[in-house]
Amino acid sequence: MNLQPIRGRVRTGLPALLLGAALLFTSACSGGGDSGGGAGDNAGGKGGGKTGTEASKAVVNVKPDDGSKEVATSGVLKISSTGGKLTTVTVADTKGNAVDGKMGADGASWEPARNLAAATEYKVHVVAKDEAGRESAKDTTFTTLTPTNTFVGHYAPEDGDTVGVGMPVSINFTRGITNTEAVEKAITVTAEPNVPVEGHWFGNDRLDFRPEKYWAAGTKVTVKIALDGVEGRPGVYGKQTRTVHFTIGRSQVSTVDASAHTMEVVRDGQVLKNLPITAGAPSTTTYNGQMVISEKYKVTRMNGATVGFGGEYDISDVPHAMRLSNSGTFVHGNYWASSSTFGSENVSHGCVGLKDARGAGDDDQPAAWFFNESLIGDVVVVKNSKDKQIAPDNGLNGWNMDWSEWIK
């Protein structure tokens, strides 16, 4: 039987088909040993390449847990990452007020720099990266406790005041403080031009701040009180946030020489006046030391019974009175003593007296002049009195404490 030959396209295609199969076989078998990388390297063979969809090895940890309520204002908020480092940490209240914090040296932990506010909702946003640069994020919300017992600090000077060079920042708390370190940390006092300012506690309810020496004239002082959420004593929390600005005016320091019966008034290094005075009598001497004017009254009542002198005096209209101590020391006008008393005798119950007119209506009188030329915070120094030095906490008189003691 004679067979007709197959068309050429079929005859010639068989060797090509066999060659293609051989090439396919060769290509499929050559990938494992080709250092140049064959098709198998990109097709999921042994040791196949990255797909870019692997999860980050960084795990973000946030305490307290999401949705927590009644969270303590300190010691609870902690943020960390395992398997990576923190790249973004944002903690803020619902008004957008951010909480400052400090990153750990390893970059894997973060804690707030200060306490949180009480009765406040906070939102937390954290991002961490692993060694491959892959990110992991976490968002949580929590609310701090609402305290039952609270305290605030009554401060001086007031916002916007211009005061003398001796004026400290003095804060009196409405509750006795046992956690003094936390409370002091929540209050910062800064000055421009810059000068170190340190705090000192008098008892457990008063904290004063001052520089080593009197403020320089013209200094701008800023006080930031961030007591909200500070646990001042067990179960008692601060509820106060304030920023106070005040200015130091010209420098005025007046020196009373109780023995010579004079007061020299010096402003910005120049003597303004020498005034005749009367100081404390021999049985009721005037304290020595540096005293700061803390209050001014054009006319006020002075009753000896309020400072331990019984009924020895009760004067309803003492003119031009300026307080120097909590215990009743004033520099004030005196209209009841004879003119010859001033500059020659000491007859008061411990105050510094200047000649004056009844009713405080005569600005030509020495007491009126001194009153009008004085600021809260001006310094009055008493020397050569036969009495002890005034206690640093008796009025705003911390200048009577050495700096080494103040900063202890």
From TrEMBL:
<keyword id="KW-0133">Cell shape</keyword>
<dbReference type="InterPro" id="IPR041280">
    <property type="entry name" value="Big_10"/>
</dbReference>
<feature type="active site" description="Nucleophile">
    <location>
        <position position="351"/>
    </location>
</feature>
<dbReference type="Pfam" id="PF03734">
    <property type="entry name" value="YkuD"/>
</dbReference>
<protein>
    <submittedName>
        <fullName>Lipoprotein</fullName>
    </submittedName>
</protein>
<comment type="pathway">
    <text>Cell wall biogenesis; peptidoglycan biosynthesis.</text>
</comment>
<feature type="active site" description="Proton donor/acceptor">
    <location>
        <position position="332"/>
    </location>
</feature>
<dbReference type="InterPro" id="IPR050979">
    <property type="entry name" value="LD-transpeptidase"/>
</dbReference>
<keyword id="KW-0449">Lipoprotein</keyword>
<keyword id="KW-0732">Signal</keyword>
<keyword id="KW-0808">Transferase</keyword>
<dbReference type="InterPro" id="IPR038063">
    <property type="entry name" value="Transpep_catalytic_dom"/>
</dbReference>
<dbReference type="Pfam" id="PF17964">
    <property type="entry name" value="Big_10"/>
</dbReference>
<feature type="domain" description="L,D-TPase catalytic">
    <location>
        <begin position="252"/>
        <end position="383"/>
    </location>
</feature>
<keyword id="KW-0573">Peptidoglycan synthesis</keyword>
<keyword id="KW-0961">Cell wall biogenesis/degradation</keyword>
<dbReference type="InterPro" id="IPR005490">
    <property type="entry name" value="LD_TPept_cat_dom"/>
</dbReference>
<keyword id="KW-0012">Acyltransferase</keyword>
<feature type="signal peptide">
    <location>
        <begin position="1"/>
        <end position="30"/>
    </location>
</feature>
